[in-house]
Amino acid sequence: MLKDADRKVIWKILAASVGVFILVYLVIVPPSEMTLESIIEDVDVNQVKHPMGHIEFLPPDLNNTLPDISKYPPQVEKITSNYIEIFSSPEKAGSGTDGWLTEVAEDFNNAGIKIDGKPVSVRLRAIPSGLGADYITSGKYMPEAYTPSNDFWGEMIISKGVDAELVEGRLVGNVAGILLTKSKKDELERKYGAINTKTIVDAVANQELAIGYTNPLASSTGLNFLISTLYAFDKSDLLSDKAVAGFESFQANIPLVAYTTLQMRDAAKSGFLEGFVLEYQTYLNDPDIRHYNFTPFGVRHDNPIYAIGELSGEESRILNEFVKFSQQEKYQNLAAKYGFNGFEEYQSEAVLVSDGVIIQAQKVWKDRKDTGRHNCAVFVVDVSGSMEGRPLNNLKRSLIDGQYYIGENNLIGLVSYSNDVNIDLPISKFDLKQRASFVGAVDELQAGGGTATFDAIAVAMKMLIDQKAAGPDKDPNLKPRIFVLSDGETNKGHSLNDIRDIVEDLGIPIYTIGYNANIKALNAISNINEAASINADTEDVIYKLSQLFNAEL
């Protein structure tokens, strides 16, 4: 027989065990069982009305949105008073296997080359081809020479009135390519024969291939792919009704146009894509993607070099000496070691276009890339106390200036949050009235309180789901997007762990834009569905947002 004291001990043990079980169940199990609806039930959501704001009809001047050139410090600095500056695409003016032109420039500067008895040198600055073109066409910063990845950028700046002259059509060889999984490549070869741009275009249009490419307003490979696609539909006129209609049917089946190459590669590695586009030199130097099959397409990326503006006789001679120096066998062998000069037998698949056709092709892409489907985005804005002052002022400027790059056919909403969540602007077509309401709501944002970031994201997801399912604008083909503008800190409401599975299951990309931010925390949000994260410093955030919104909205 158990004594009363023994019974009390046993009951205490049982009670403690039950307590531990309940504690484990409450703490560990519920997050995995949380639904979007159960999270929303815990959130205080307020509908807030704002007066319309005043909008201008012209976007910010490009000169004012570009960062100061010091944002891109020289990769190689001049060592003499007589010199020229060269803008170069980063894949050849970086470091390591991306440092071919860097090594050429360093050796050139150390070679003791003289012109008219005076020592000369070069300054080399690594800048993406599209960004370099923007500096030059805006006049904000003019180098003496410019070497983008391919000829399209040179033709573009010339068509915009820049005094640019081709000095050398090829510094070093490279090609753009379509990367396909082996199984998909074999499947397409059985049906279509050889893999080329036309094969890819037809397979995408027939919903047989899920492929991604990079933003053609900024990426050399993305621009090449756009031009090649239009060319595949009409070789005689890239801007004909036939070419544009063909592009629309093709683009309707493209799941991803990536803001960055990294974003696109992450999507491919996750199994989301069966193919994507990339330069051969980058492909060759990345073992993580070598299991894809590479097929060259479009025009070659032979890294031409242009003289910019009216160079003096001395500047022209320095540039010519540098080009000649780079063509020595020693440096061309080094280029091959670093992955360049491959696919030498490949000839450009499409003709080089000029006379403003490239600019018009980019406009076709911007205007027609979402024909037949609507992008729907909710901007989620942090107005907690930690955003007070400069961070919130910069955020408001970002949205007011950035809205010029959002097309009117998009559906846009606005949510702000601190301790609780405000719906400042319900989702609606971004026409003149909605645009003015957006600006008015942003103007009235004020900081204070805690930071319930994930409550606000949950509300935004619910808004997107409701928009897709019901109402006069319901659209089963809606492309949902969330843009979170924050410093990245969270101290109220639900956690990332509470909503991670929900975000992943819904597949809604969440782009994050950080202001004086915990970038690591914001990256964790964006990485769930391979979206981009921007560190929005005060100087170039508008330019960054223009590139992001052009790609996504």
Automatic annotation (TrEMBL):
Pfam families attached to this UniProt entry: VWA
Transmembrane segments annotated in the record for this chain: 9-28
Domain named VWFA: residues: 376-553
Keyword match Lipid metabolism: no
Keyword Transmembrane helix attributed: yes
Domain of life: Archaea
CDD domains listed in its UniProt record: vWFA (cd00198)
Signal peptide (UniProt feature, chain positions): none
Keywords: Membrane, Transmembrane, Transmembrane helix
The protein's name: VWFA domain-containing protein
Record organism: Methanothrix harundinacea (strain 6Ac) (Methanosaeta harundinacea)
